[in-house]
Amino acid sequence: MKFCDFSCKFAIWPKGESLDGSGSCRTFQAIYCKKKNRHVHKNMPCSEKEKMEGVKSKAQGIR
Asked: What are the sequence ranges of the domains in the chain?
């Protein structure tokens, strides 16, 4: 299972301050996903990464 994090090429810091109610400390991080065009929770399961991994595996002939 793949998770949403900042290693993803589609992940950027959200532009809004206090998006998660924690002020500037960003304890509960939200991520803006450019692929989904919306905010997502950091570390939630990421179906987009799963899809990309599946396509990559098929291209390399890996099962």
From this structure: 11-60
